[in-house]
Amino acid sequence: MSRASRSREAQAGPADAGFLVGMDAMRGPYTTSMGRLSETDRVHSVLRADIVHARIRPGVAISEQEAASRFGVSRTPVREAILRLSREGLVHVKPQRGTYASLISLKRLEESLFVRQAVEGRLLEAITGRSERRDLVTVLDSIAREQSFAARSGDLDVVLDADTRFHYALVAASGLTGLWSVVAQARDMDQRIRSIAVPELGSADAAVREHRSIVAAVDRGDAARARMLMESHLSRNLKLAKAIAARYPEYFEP
Predict the structure, then answer these.
(1) Is the same domain home to 155 and 238?
(2) Residues 123 and 162 occupy one common structural domain
(3) Are β-strands 91-94 and 61-62 bridged in parallel, bridged antiparallel, or unpaired?
C-alpha cells in the first residue's frame, strides 16, 4: 500500500475501510512496490502516467534510447512498453520516424464522455436510491474536502488523484467494480485534458464545486438530480478540451 493510502487509512472510519482496499485494487500493481514489476511493466507504468498527466504533452517525441537510459534498462522493454501504449491509443508510432505521444481527438473524447455519462450517471442514480448511500456520502465528502484543499494549495497531482478516487468510489459502491475498466479506459483522454486545463484554466475549483453538489444530491436521496449533475459535470470536460484546443491547436488531431 502506498504512503498516501496508509495516511488515508489512518484517518478513515469503518465505513471507509472497504473502499480503501478497493482503491488499492483499482490502482493495480503500478502503485505497489516497483520491485515486483517486470522492466516492461515499470517503463509502461511511468510513461503512461507521464502521458495521461500531460508531463509528456501531445505530439512530443519519445526516444527509446533516452527512455532506456532513464529507466536503466535495455531498449527491448522500452519497445514492449511502447507497444502497449500504442494499443491503448496513448502513443503513435511512425515507422522510420519515431514514437510520439498521441494527439488528442475531440471526436474520441466526446465518445468517451458519452460512455462515462451512460455508465456513471446510471450507477449514481441507482446508488442514490439505496439506504447504504450514507457510507458513500462519507467517503465522497472526505475526498471532495481533500481535493478542495489541494486545489487551494495548487497541488495538481493530489487534485487529479482525488478526482480519480471520487469517481472510483461511485463504481465501487455499486458493487459492479468490473465496470471500472470501462470507465478508466474512457477517462484516459479527458484525464489528459484536465491535466492541462487545471493549471492553464484554473478549472479545479469548478470540479470541486460540482463534486460537492453531487455529494449533496446523493445525501438527500435525489437520484434524478444526482444523475443530472454527474452528466453535466462530465460534459464540462468537452468544453475544457475546446478551450485548450483554442490555445494549443498543435495538441489536437486536425
Answers:
(1) yes
(2) yes
(3) unpaired
For 19-67, the pLDDT digits (tens) are 333 443 344 333 444 446 799 999 999 999 999 999 999 999 999 999 9
Cell of 6: 496508509
Sheet strands side by side (includes 91-94)? 61-62, 98-101, 91-94
The pTM assigned to this predicted structure is: 0.79
Question: Which amino acid, one-letter code, is at 71?
Answer: F
Assign residue 95 the CATH number of its domain. 1.10.10.10
- How do strand 98-101 and strand 61-62 relate by DSSP bridges? antiparallel
Domains contained in the chain, number: 2
Domain extent at residue 239: 105-251
Domain endpoint, select from 53, 84, 101:
101
CA distance to 34, 134, 138, 234, per residue, from 129 (Å): 41, 11, 16, 21
